[in-house]
Amino acid sequence: MTSPTDATSATGATRATDAADGRASADFYDFESALPDDEREILLRTRAFMREEIKPLVNESWAEGSFPDELITRFRKSGLAGLAYEGYGEHRPAVSHLLTGMMAMEMSRVDASVATFFGVHNGLAMYSIQAGGDQEQRDRWLPGMAAMDTIGAFALTEPLDGSDVAAGMRTTAERRGDTWTLNGAKRWIGNATFADHIVVWARDVEDDQVKGFVVGKGTPGFTARKIENKTSLRIVENADITLTDVQVPDSDRLQNVSSFRDVAEILRATRSGVAWQALGVMIGAYELALGYATERQQFGKPLAGFQLVQDLLVKSLGNITACWGMLLQLARLQDAGVFKDEHSSLAKAYVTARMREVVAWAREIFGGNGIVLDYDVARFFADSEAIYSFEGTREMNTLIVGKAITGQSAFV
């Protein structure tokens, strides 16, 4: 979906993409050097895969609001899934949180929808089973998911409950013998229209505690309807789910989940991944703007030669650098096993706010060309709004951090 006028901007964007040593050109402080050589090789493999195999698919799919089946096929061949789960992915042992974060960043640098699809499968769904399942369940589901022979989804948000789902969850689970009956509805569930394993969270009517269940594709009473007319993350197949007397054996209940506190542990770990996605969106938009400004001629010289344009580019690079440094340290806290809810919440709230600034400045540099898909930046601009909201809004994450630093809860 490239117009004839796009030729020079595409050339500039390509030239602005990577430094001479292969680093992202936005990596002004050489953060990638924090990775050991074997993990940096995986990052470079991710970079090449996204650029060569995925980028050609995204604009047409985004315009159509469709998820191409070919995308899963290409991911399956890449071997990038499951690397964080020791014994289940291609890499042994499990890779660091820093690498998995940078992989999410690298995917979002090309397309946020694709990164979200992968994050739901490889992060939310697989981590729910890894953290919430027993060993038999891990061995049953994770190998196929790591190979991407089967795809996962994560069903928590409900039509009437987003941020307050912990207290307001309406989906119920009732046990009769060795079988559970699920009833309720979920909304905004990524991958749900085609996923093989959907991790559904429901409130046990007996003890009023949240439990997790893995519902298989095609289970009677389970329906998933694609949400249409989205203006953000259009490639992601978000769905409205309805559960009507869905029967799930107790063997498919996540055995190590007994309350919403366990769900919160999963969200704490995956929320940082969304912050890395936001960083990737910033980098992608900045690099597009840098390439365009270098090539686009106005008043007899490149846009990059004007002070106000340089101001926008430098402010963008400053945001990127500050956020990258924050996320680098967050990953180190994760790898050390000492990070807390407030750490991931601050990162998610701060980085997504800076992302909003950067994508707006990038679109501004493109002028009128910034509102058409041909130049890519419009996609980044639109997709940033979803990332800003999901996995906890800025306001909710702010209150988590506020409670941690003041000792006072300001939640209503």
What does this entry look like structurally?
With 412 residues, this protein is α+β, with helices and mostly antiparallel strands. It has helices at 7-15, 37-64, 69-78, 97-110, 112-132, 135-146, 165-168, 260-295, 307-336, 341-366, 377-389, 394-406, and strands at 152-155, 172-176, 179-190, 197-204, 210-216, 222-226, 238-249, 297-298, 301-302. The strands form two sheets. Strands 1, 2, 3, 4, 5, 6 and 7 form a seven-stranded mixed beta sheet that branches. Strands 8-9 form a two-stranded antiparallel sheet. Strand 8 (297-298) and strand 9 (301-302) form a beta hairpin. The longest helix has 36 residues, at 260-295. Residues 1-15 have low confidence and may be disordered.
Which CATH first-tier class of the largest domain would you pick?
A: Mainly Alpha
Structural Rg: 21 Å
CATH architectural category of the largest domain: Up-down Bundle
The number of domains = 3
What is the tally of helical segments? 12
On the 0 to 100 scale, the average pLDDT is 89
Number of β-strand runs: 9
Low-confidence parts: 1-15
CATH fold annotation of the largest domain: Butyryl-CoA Dehydrogenase, subunit A, domain 3
Alpha-beta content class: alpha+beta
Helix content: 40-55%
Sheet of most strands: 7 strands, mixed
How big a fraction of the residues is strand?
A: 5-15%
Helix-strand string = HHHHHHEHEEEEEEHEEHHHH
Straight-line distance between termini: 47 Å
Shape: globular
Q: CATH homologous superfamily of the largest domain - what is it? A: Butyryl-CoA Dehydrogenase, subunit A, domain 3
